[in-house]
Inverse folding.
């Protein structure tokens, strides 16, 4: 009789372990899916090793017309978009391991702050924003001159 009790307890232990592994794998898949890269050519994702980005790494997408800052959350996410015409300045704060990027707007609203990007990514982000702004204002000036 004691052997059958041990066998029953062993089977229960295996079921508990299997359920725990399934829950752990589900959590890993959930956080991996939340941190996957946004679509686009110029997307910069913060390192999971940096402050505030372990579970939900923030991302910045830079395209010719806007800068999009996206932070995933457990349910949904928070996205902020700034048109290139409204970007006033870009500040890159390089620390020992990672860089912080602050994008200020011309409207006076609170700036977009992105923590934990690789140094090369932060510099490239600033370069792209400045390049796209130059292109935007150059094209805008040419179209305005053509109308006159």
């Amino acid at each position: 009789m004691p052997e059958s009790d041990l066998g029953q307890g062993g089977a229960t232990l295996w079921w508990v372990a299997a359920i725990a592994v399934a829950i752990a794998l589900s959590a890993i898949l959930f956080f991996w899916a939340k941190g996957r890269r946004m679509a686009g050519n110029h997307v910069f994702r913060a390192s999971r090793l940096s402050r505030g980005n372990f579970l939900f790494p923030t991302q910045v997408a830079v395209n010719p017309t806007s800068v999009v800052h996206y932070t995933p959350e457990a349910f949904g996410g928070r996205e902020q978009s700034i048109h290139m015409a409204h970007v006033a300045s870009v500040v890159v704060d390089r620390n020992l391991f990672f860089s912080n990027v602050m994008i200020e707007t011309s409207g006076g609203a609170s700036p977009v702050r992105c923590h934990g990007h690789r140094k090369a990514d932060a510099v490239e982000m600033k370069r792209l924003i400045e390049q796209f702004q130059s292109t935007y204002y150059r094209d805008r000036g040419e179209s305005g001159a053509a109308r006159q």
The chain has two helices and seven strands. Strands lie at 43-45, 59-62, 66-72, 77-83, 87-94, 99-105, 112-117. The two ends are 100 Å apart (CA to CA).
